[in-house]
Amino acid sequence: MLVGQPAIVSLPHFYQGDQSLVDAFDGLHPTKDVHQTFLDVEPYTGALLRASKRLQVNIWLQKISRFTETDHLPDFLPFPVMWLNESALVEESTADELKSQLLTVIKVSQGGEYAFIAIGSIMVLVVICIAIFRCQRQRDDQLLHSVNTDDRSDYGAVGSRENTYNNGHSTQM
What we know:
Blueprint: E1 7-10, H1 19-23, H2 32-35, E2 38-41, E3 48-61, E4 77-89, H3 92-155, E5 162-165, E6 169-172
Subcellular location: Membrane
Organism: Lingula anatina
Region (Disordered): 154-173
């Protein structure tokens, strides 16, 4: 039992550690796929789909003056004792259910986007048609008003003392 001995935690096989640590021991081959810690998170919901926590427990070996077997050790050497792999994976049925529910929400929201774009486009077209109709009506009203005022000036009012005839010459009655 190693009571009171300092423990040092690292990634297994000293993955992403100093190369001198890997070279100090035979049989260590740090590999990303096997030794890294990771989390796979679904980006829309934040649900954890897959995770792996991998740690290596090391003890600190040092030179001991009374034991000549330790004379070759450097001043600092973490000695691997064990490594742990704690992994979790969402079951296939749960992943399918999450995917189904999530895709349904995404499809409905995308359909809503297109519906709002269509409704907005129709509203813009209606406003443009109303504006064109009002401009046309206003122009027609102005044209009608100008025709009415021109008619009055050409023929004069009934009972007026002046009538216009003979190419714009007026005479008194």
